[in-house]
Write a structure and sequence with these properties.
InterPro entries: Xre/MbcA/ParS-like_toxin-bd (IPR024467). This is Antitoxin Xre/MbcA/ParS toxin-binding domain-containing protein. The protein is mainly alpha-helical. The protein folds into two domains: 1-30, no CATH class; 38-196, no CATH class. It contains ten helices and two strands; from the N terminus they run E-E-H-H-H-H-H-H-H-H-H-H. The chain has helices spanning 47-50, 54-67, 70-79, 83-93, 97-104, 108-116, 123-146, 149-154, 157-164, 184-196; strands spanning 4-10, 17-24. It is globular, with a radius of gyration of 23 Å. The termini are far apart.
């Protein structure tokens, strides 16, 4: 079609056509372009796009989360957590993407639909992913403060955490840490469990 599209409707009686109106392509409403918050970086889902492996991308993101003030974390979640973050976490930890989607509380159908439309995760899923990253940041801080630096070099922190969040813990009423990411109170309860484990994580 030309730059200006015409809407034509045939008359039922005479077989003629009536022009109902024209609308310039430029005048059509365009989908809003949603800016990615600086915290998330760019193209996290593709390791080659940044020159970093998914594991290094995850560590860099966790470090940004660790250093960012609370208001910036709030703004990052409000702006929307990109679907690429889920894929990057999955690649970095070796977990299937479906497991990380489950942790975020988002169905594969919704995830694929949002990814295709270049839309961020639903709000609740975004909050859970941020909680996951904040717990990783808390864990990294604790290990930096009390762990053996030499031991830390070989300790697979991300892999350990990815498995640990799916373990049922008596301290959490036989719930998993992943279950507790649903609200801030649960997140604080998981942080308290990690604090009590301080010093014994990399043994």
């Amino acid at each position: 079609m030309a730059a200006t599209d015409e809407i034509i409707v045939a008359h039922r009686s005479g077989g003629g056509a009536e022009k109902l109106g024209t609308k310039s392509v430029a005048e059509r409403p365009q989908p809003a372009v949603r800016k990615i918050h600086v915290l998330w970086g760019k193209k996290l889902g593709q390791s080659g796009s940044t020159g970093k492996t998914p594991l290094l991308q995850l560590r860099a993101l966790v470090e940004r989360v660790r250093e960012a003030p609370g208001v910036q974390l709030y703004d990052a979640v409000e702006a929307g957590v990109p679907t690429d973050v889920v894929k990057m976490i999955a690649r970095a930890t070796g977990e299937p993407a479906s497991v990380i989607m489950g942790l975020a509380g988002v169905s594969q159908t919704t995830f694929v639909r949002n990814e295709a439309a270049n839309k961020p995760l639903p709000d609740v899923a975004g909050h859970r992913i941020m909680a996951y990253l904040r717990l990783l940041a808390t864990l990294r801080r604790m290990l930096d403060e009390s762990g053996d630096p030499e031991q830390m070099k070989t300790f697979d922190l991300e892999g350990w955490f990815a498995r640990w969040v799916h373990e049922k813990l008596p301290e959490l009423g036989d719930k998993t840490p992943a279950d507790m990411l649903r609200n801030p109170e649960g997140q604080r309860a998981v942080e308290q469990v990690l604090e009590r484990m301080r010093g014994g994580l990399a043994a």
